[in-house]
Specification:
72% of the residues lie in helices and 7% in strands. The chain is an alpha+beta fold.
Length: 456
Amino acid sequence: MCENNQKTNKLKGLRIQTVSLWVSICTILVSILIGHGILNVKKQYHHLTRMTRRYIITQDDAMDMSLGSDHLTEQARLYVITKEQLHADAYFMEINVTQRRERALLEIEKNLSGNDENTLQMSKTALKLSNDLTDREIHAMKLAALSADADISKLSPEIQNYTLSAEELQYSQQEQSDAASKLVFGQEYRSKKKEIDETLSKVTKSAIQTCETTQRKSEAAMKKALTLQSIYAVISVLLVILAYAIIAVLIIKPIKMYIDCIKNNNILEVKGAYKFKYLAATYNDIYETSVTQHDLLRQKVEHDILTELPNRQAFEHIKTGLRTFPDPIALVLVDIDLFKSINNTYGHEIGDCALIRTAGLLKESFRSTDYVFRISGDEFALILLKISPECKRIVGSKIDRINRTLQHPPKDLPKYSISAGIAFSDIGYTDELFRQAEKALFGAKENGRCGYTFSD
């Protein structure tokens, strides 16, 4: 048992539990990374969508500021030209109620606060420039109203409360009209108006550029995330392939191999994972022990304890196998002459010694490839392989030599002899061969014993 434990302790190999644990850990880690990557892609997508929406709104707000400023310019100019109150009312409706410029700036501040200070500052500058023009436009409308003798009380409070210079109050109606037109149509006004448009155009361009920059950054981040996702997907596939390979190589293959070995009654090859190597080594130890015990049991069952020769059961087993033997054989049946009288005269102990000495002489006299059996009390049988009747003289001389030896025994044994009947077969063992050898043995005894007879 200790030796078996030492063998199994020396075994090396991959442990399925350890490999499975690491594969599982790697799979979980890759799954976490894939999940994190999906969340990252989702986050980048939402960020890109949100920022794109913000800058589209910013462009729309810049457009509203431009439209509001243009509306004020248009209504101021129309009033200066036509002196119709509806244009003044429309002007101050935009200033006090609609307030597209102010509302647009509030939206821009809301969308860009903390994200794009440059665009936000340009938007505030555009509103300040537009507000600077409103003072000029109200100034022009006050002069236009006076030039047309309009009822000032019906106009907006901003016009009513606007203070003209003493010089302007001394102007004639035509001079007042001309001054009003110069204020909203002159070069200075157009320059300021152009500056407002350029500033708002810069707001739009800045919003577009910032949006494009954000898009590029988000696209790069998404591309990186998708690349990582592709890598994680490949790793996942490799882990699946690795798991299949582990199952195929370390589990399925050894199991198939072990099944074949067990079917063929062979020892198991010590291959595969550590557990299977351990299983194979343990099985082989049990198998070898079983074979050894089986051989020992068979040795006991098929061997004579006294002479240590194969017994009758072994003789029956061997002769069955030799029925298909393709070469010629010979069967020799041997009896100890007058063995009963040896037992009666000298005792069974001497009789046993005679049996042992006869068995030893038979084994020594014939080839190691020949079989020698003790088939009953004082009866022996020899099966000589690959021998033909041309070798009769050799076989007979061996029997004679044994008898001469038996006639000169040690001091503790009496003289005795053997008789033998010999029969030959051209191909393998047959029942007729045994009958012929038995008949020849009877002939040897009838002829005075201490000799041999060949079967015809």
